[in-house]
Amino acid sequence: MLRKLRILVLGSLFILLALIVISMTSVRERISGLDGGNPTGPIWFVTGIEYDLLQLELELKNYTLGRSGPEDVNRRFDILWSRLIVIQKGDTAEKLDRYQVDRTVLDSLFAMLKANDSLVVNLPQQIAQDSTVREFLDKIVTYNSPLRNLSLDVLQASSRASKIRREELADINTQSTILTGMVVAAFVVLGALQILETAQTKRSLKEKERLLRDATAAGVAKSQFISVMNHELRTPLTSIRGAVTLLNAGAAGVFPDKAKRLLDMVQKNSEQLSLLIEDILEIEKLMAGRFELRTEIVDMGALIADELPNFNAYAKASDVTVVLNTQTDGALVEVDTKRMRQVLSNLVHNAVKFSRPGNAVHIDLTQSADEVVIAIADKGIGIPDDALPKIFDSFYQVDSSDSRNTGGTGLGLSIVKNLVEAMRGNVSVTSQVDQGTTFYVVLPVASVVAQSNMQAAE
Ligand code: ATP
Ligand code: MG
Fold first, then answer.
1. What are the DSSP E strand ranges found in 248-345?
2. Which of 2, 49, 123, 335 has its CA at a distance of 20 to 30 angstroms from the CA of residue 274?
């Protein structure tokens, strides 16, 4: 949960940073696009022209009064001329266009100056009253007022542009404040998440330590229990069984019937208890991998046929028969014979135990190119679907209530599974309640095992 939140915040932070980079670029563009309002701006040029025009007018008047020479008029004329050229192109002209002011007055002034260029250049040194000069002077005067209007227009447009500039700056400022705020908030959330995660990690570390302590304690308890089973239970139980067998065999004389029945009961129960202990010790060894397999190549058909009389002797007590159907010859497998007999015995005992009197248990042996399959099928009570995945678990029994009439501890199938898998096979089951159950033991044929061993060795 915390991790997901962190990824979310990190994602948003990444998006925010991307936004900041994008907005920085656009801010830069916008700032560079802003009119700086510096002295090279159009207003300075227009007022400059207005001023230069007045200067030219003054100089001409002085000239007509004989107070200044033609070179003074020429100088003023040139200044005005060059200022007009500057304003009509480049940056200033562009800005004037942007302000959308009517600058025809400048064009007309320039045209008028051009028309009078030769007049100014050829002004005589001594001239007092010349009508062309006067006309020129009159023309110049007519431009004063339109130029003032142009100045005012430019001034207005420029202050409008300044206003927009101020608003843009305020806008940029707000945007960057918001983005900065968001970044700070994201960092704060990230920090908080980090603190939470650290706390959680500490908690789960403590929990793991506790579990480890518990597991170690459980391990110690388990090995103590196993050692108690081995020495304190198994050894005296063996003596009890031996003594009871001897008593039953008449070693201490003949007992009255009642005492004999009690002795039978002691013998039966002590044998069951002994089986349970053996099973628990066995499964413990299997789970811990502390057992050795003495494998050899065996004909599975022959092995089952050899065990069949034992199965039938046991099944007879339940009025069940065990039938072997070998559909293949020479089903060679590489197994530990003793362990394989144990596997078959567990499965057949189950099949008999959960059959009804008069039923038959069928053992079918088949083989393919790679596998030998032993199917042990009964027509007994069956296993409900929801129990099927659990039956190979240790101590699991479909009906573990005291009222059930079959004995056992629920370790048989767990031992079977561990042994078959240790012999590179697998065991599976199909069942239908009240119809019966079939267990399948699948083992690789001996040649396949040999081949895979050779491959492993290479
Ligand atoms: P144990 O084998 O330790 O003496 P168990 O026979 O009860 O005891 P498993 O052999 O492990 O234990 O079997 C587990 C359970 O699976 C049984 O208790 C039974 O409920 C069910 N089961 C196993 N084989 C069959 C079968 N052939 N038919 C119906 N149920 C079965
Ligand atoms: Mg069993």
1. 295-299, 321-326, 332-336
2. 335
Measured in angstroms, how far is the CA atom of residue 347 from the centroid of ligand 2? Answer: 7
Q: Is residue 202 part of a domain?
A: no
Ligand number nearest CA of 279 is 1
Residues 172 and 266 in one domain: no
Locate the ligand 1 atom nearest the alpha carbon of residue 380 and give its number.
28
Clarify whether residues 64 and 99 are in a common domain.
Answer: yes
Instruction: Kindly state whether residues 32 and 47 are assigned to the same domain.
Output: yes
Q: What is the pLDDT along the chain (458 residues), one digit of tens a residue?
A: 767 777 887 788 788 788 878 877 777 776 666 555 455 577 888 888 889 999 999 998 898 888 888 999 999 999 999 988 888 777 777 877 888 888 888 889 999 999 999 888 888 877 656 788 888 889 999 999 998 988 888 888 888 877 887 888 888 788 888 888 888 888 888 888 889 889 989 999 999 999 999 998 987 887 778 777 777 888 888 889 999 999 988 888 888 999 999 999 898 888 888 888 888 888 888 877 778 889 999 999 999 999 999 999 999 999 999 999 998 888 999 999 999 999 999 999 999 999 999 999 999 999 999 999 999 999 999 999 999 999 999 889 997 665 456 667 888 999 999 999 999 999 999 999 999 999 999 999 998 766 677 777 77
CATH number of domain containing 303: 3.30.565.10
Best substitution site from 350, 395, 438, 440 to test ligand 1's pocket, by max atoms within 8 Å of Cβ?
Answer: 350
- Give the position, in ligand 1's atom list, of the atom nearest the Cα of 275: 4
Q: Which residues' Cβ are closer than 6 Å to ligand 1? A: 279, 346, 350-351, 354, 378, 380-383, 391, 396-399, 408-414, 437
Placement of tokens 């959330």 in the chain: 189
Among the candidates 138, 166, 196, a domain finishes at 196
Q: Which residues contact 312 (CB under 8 A, 6 or more apart)?
A: 321, 322
Cβ–Cβ under 8 Å, residues 370 and 448: yes
Residues 382 and 239 both lie in one domain = no
Do 444 and 309 belong together in one domain?
yes
Using alpha carbons, select from 42, 35, 38 the residue that is nearest to residue 169: 35
Same domain, 412 and 380: yes
Nearest CA to ligand 1 atom 20: 398
Range of the domain at 344: 295-457
At which of 260, 291, 322 does a domain end?
A: 291
Smallest CA separation from ligand 1 atom 12, residue: 410
pTM reported for the whole predicted model: 0.55
**Among the atoms of ligand 1, which is closest to the Cα of residue 397?**
18
Ligand 2 center to 331 CA (angstroms): 26
List the one residue out of 304, 303, 321 whose CA is nearest residue 312: 321
Q: What is each CA distance from 426 to 414, 419, 442, in whole angstroms?
A: 12, 9, 5
**156 and 280 part of one domain:** no
Residue 40 one-letter amino acid: T
> What is the best residue among 391, 392, 395, 431 to mutate for testing ligand 1's pocket, by most ligand atoms within 8 Å of CB?
391
